[in-house]
Design a protein that fits this description.
The chain is an alpha/beta fold. It is built from 15 helices and 12 strands. The strands form 3 sheets. It has a 7-stranded parallel sheet with strand order 3-12-11-7-4-5-6, with helices on both faces. A 3-stranded antiparallel sheet has the order 8-9-10. Helix 6 links the parallel strand 5 and strand 6.
Length: 354
Amino acid sequence: MANRVGDAATAIETGQPHAAPGGQDLAAQHLNTRVVWYYYVGNRTQQEIADELGITRLRVNKIIGQARLAGAVNIEIRMPLAECVALEQRLKARYGLRDVTIVPSLSDIDQQKRVIGEATGTMLDGLLRPGQTIGVGWGQTLLSVARKLTRTAPGGRVIAMMGRPDARLRADSFEAASELARVLGAECQHIPSLLYYPDQSSFAALQDYQPLAAVLEAARGADIGLVTCGDLSDQQQIFAVTSITRQEIESLRSLGAVGEILGMFLDADGAPVDHPLNRRIMALAPSELRMLPDTILAAGGLYKLTIVRSVIRGGYVKRLVTDEAVAKGLLAAGDTPPVARENQETRKQRKPSS
């Protein structure tokens, strides 16, 4: 099927990605760009686009018409986020992800987290249904998710999927989960526990404590898991607000750890490292996160590229929200989708020896 804007002549102009023309917020601008990209470059029908994005066909038609009138489409797509949409499609195909949202890369780390968090809220908003259980990790990025929610979740629950690192941490699982539950009008449950225990004996003594076991079991039944991840740099909150020592950080690095998800430290291929901290953590395990029906990873900043790649390689999440720099880094890695890689490894194991 011929490309609507010309197979050879199609070009994408990025302009100033973080400037939302006409007073549009980033979410609206991103939606408009997706619609136009899907229609003119992706060769999709207006109904297919409406179904994909969870909006009406009338709205799709209106966005396309406005883009034409504004001169945004004339052989070229002159919309600031067009490159982001193109990266989304490539990442979905490369890693077998259900959905990907790419936002512009920003130099200010706090602003980058806010933009990624708000884009995650837009993605989550389209998945919400009455009575759902939402499992939530912790982190500054997740605090911005609730700002973009337009739906409520009657009869739903929000459950923190990990214990609290420390009372000094503002952007922890308690606050992220509580704010999400408040906006959704849902019940909220927390894990009444520390994240890391000082020794194996104290951890073992509380593993069967009924209130803890009940919340963790409820988290395992979540419909959607919402998480971020952290690398091993000194700027990561998890090291500043837990009892993790400098010696433990160095020992994690020596074992090949590149970062954490839900407090569990992973190597570059997404496997948990064999470290005492991973054996005395009160949180949903990454392998349990993988089993949830739907999951979103919200993380960005080039310094997190290695751990974002690790989480995706491990197959722990089904959707991704990140920034352009990380997206390009992921595409440069030459990875195969987790499912395809698992199938390849299985075939190797079954191959008879000569």
